[in-house]
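Data follows
____________
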Amino acid sequence: MLCLASFFKGNRFLEQCKRQGARVVLLTREAVLNEAWSRDSIDEVFAMPDFNDRPALLRAVSYLARTRHFDRIAPLDDCDVDTVALLREHLRIPGMGETTARYFRDKLAMRARARDRGIRCPDFVHVCNHDDVQSFLNNVAGPWVIKPRSEANSVGIKVLKTADEAWAAIHELGDLQSFYLIEKMIAGPVYHVDGLIFDKKVVFADAHKYHQPILQIISSGGIFATRTLDRNGAEATELRAHLQNLVDQFGLVRGVTHTEMIRSEEDGQFYFLETAARVGGGHIADMVEISTGVKLWEEWANIEIGQGEKPYTPPTPDTSCGAVLFCLAQSEHPDASAYTEPYIARRLLDKKQHVGFILKGSSQAEVEGYMNTLIPRMEKDFLMTLPRPDKRLF
């Protein structure tokens, strides 16, 4: 198993691969080589300056393949999905190829696919042909957002209120314009569904609702928070159905997915925002584990190793509900010793200047109550805000 990691994440995936008997090879960037990787679960580690030079990456991995038989290649981060698809195609290794990977990485590709397949999504235009852009601005009421096609965590997104603002943002991009799109900004709460896919079927899915959109947090600061929806409620039921339809239309055969939807305040309908073939960030996997017992990283590793060549039995989830809250903290090592509530199932203190908690309860209403109690306390005790970053946070 060759695992690519642009960022320090995925230790649990690596550990599960080793438990399953795989010989694990990690290829990462030099900038994160000295992070706390699970070295006991990794047989070999290699690093490159970055993964941006695709020809150099192809040559490097092909060189490693001269003396190693790679049966599987897996991405540990969202920005590695298309890179791994390229490597799979080049070395003819089973797994998602480049065409399908586009639908789970390129925001323009996923929106075009959604529109072509009748999936409701915000009106959008590729920032390429200027006549098309002007027609969009004339016919689709603002505000709009301009966003990069391949970034994560709302990085690079700007809100545009007028056509003049839109054109100023476009001209500022210069020759990078075609790597962006503009879409109508829809007001409403944002949801996410985290699931496991095997043989084109959603074999596990849990629906959640953000406390506030990530774009808002990155723009103005605040507590990142999300919680489980009532699994028997109308919203969760509809979101799970949306996910299965998305899997059918986008061609995801097997793996893991983190999919985001927004419910319009104007018409009450769900609109597709984006999807990814990876585990959700922001400690979402920890929340899912606490509330359901399902370990997304480990299950994804099992699916990747098997690739349909052997049966896969999905886990039976528990029925508890969960929430995750975390934020940037004022001190390097925040003191959370005063947070002793019994509903705090796990503390998130392993990253400098960050503090957070995983909560567990019996219902959506219960964990929302816990969450709404802790958020003002965390804002008072810990919260620090910084200028909006120009790169991803997690």
The first strand starts at residue 2 and ends at 5.
